[in-house]
Amino acid sequence: MFLSVFTLLLLTACGNSDSKDSISTIKLADAGWDSIRIHNGIAQIILEEGYGYDTEIVNGTSSATLQALQQGDLQVYTEVWSDNLGDAYTNAIDSGDIESVSTNFDDNSQGLYVPTYVIKGDPERNIEAVAPDLKTIKDLEKYPELFKDPENKDKGRIIGAPSSWIISKHLDEKLTTYGLNEKFTYLAPGSDSSIVADLASAYKKGEPWVGYYWSPTWVTATYDLTLLEDEPFDQEAWDKDKSGAFPPNDVFVSVHKDLKTQAPEVVEFLSNYETSSALTEEALEYMGDNEASPEDTAKWFMKENEELWTSWVPEDVAEKVKAAL
């Protein structure tokens, strides 16, 4: 999968006539989740309508798209979860091949979630609390029978992060460190949509479920979920065996180094690009409630938050975009 995705990126890049000093088509990374697609949609509208550039979205895993950005086959990455990418991100920054020009948002969270009714019940749905003492990830060791693995009745099941995401390996190591691998099967699905489908099925039936997710997402905005607690984040402990809370994630807008000379006005715009988890989650909730596309959600977001995005660009650019909207 990795080779095929990256080969596609290379072949796509070879087909344009851009140089180190100019560019006509700006390519943005789609690493596979909804919020990056919405931010891409916002950036596309501004780039196309305000600055007159053609844009293209290129799909791939988080690691493949980061590598493509580093090599100049992509120009923009609107949602780089820096700590999840670890050394790959640090090395790309240290090499000077990419530059993080702004922080899109930094008030996010990730980890293992359970539906809140597992802990507190839900009287309106006649669901009783089945694990009122479940507070931390380590507490899961008491409840393997509650989260039964349908394929291994002797163990519980934890739904992990998608197998192609770097965070999946980290989570698997964390569960081993905590000894939960002895009582639980760790299932790393192939995609984000697989996690959501599994959660939605359990939630509809009022059944126990535990698995990886993150915020901001439409999922955490739509479903009443509780993030299981962990020990406070400690870099030394995390580096040793992934124990403790996940690292705090600064979510950056990053560009390839050549974009500063190819399109300095675009880098200036992206340097001002800043939202928040709350704003992003509002957009994701709109997207889910209305079954809207990322493109339509981006338009909705810009109409709802005109004062915000117009502060990112010069007045003449803002007027062109407003006219197009």
Describe the protein.
The strands form four sheets. The protein has a three-stranded antiparallel sheet, with helices on both faces. The longest helix is centred in the first third of the chain and has 18 residues, at 34-51. The radius of gyration is 21 Å and the shape is globular. With 325 residues, it is of the alpha+beta class. The protein has 16 helices and eleven strands. It has two domains: 2-108 and 250-324, D-Maltodextrin-Binding Protein, domain 2 (3-Layer(aba) Sandwich), CATH 3.40.190; 109-241, D-Maltodextrin-Binding Protein, domain 2 (3-Layer(aba) Sandwich), CATH 3.40.190.100. Helix content is 45%, strand content 19%.
Helix content, binned percent = 40-55%
Give the name of the CATH architecture of the largest domain.
3-Layer(aba) Sandwich
Strand tally: 11
Radius of gyration: 21 Å
CATH topology annotation of the largest domain: D-Maltodextrin-Binding Protein, domain 2
Q: Unreliable runs, pLDDT <50, ≥5 residues? A: 1-16
CATH homologous superfamily label of the largest domain = Periplasmic binding protein-like II
End-to-end separation: 38 Å
Main sheet makeup: 3 strands, antiparallel
Q: Strand-residue fraction?
A: 15-25%
What top-tier CATH class of the largest domain fits best? Alpha Beta
Arithmetic mean pLDDT: 91
Strand order of the largest sheet: 3-11-4
Helix-strand pattern = HEHEHEHHEEHEEHEHEHEHEHHHHHH
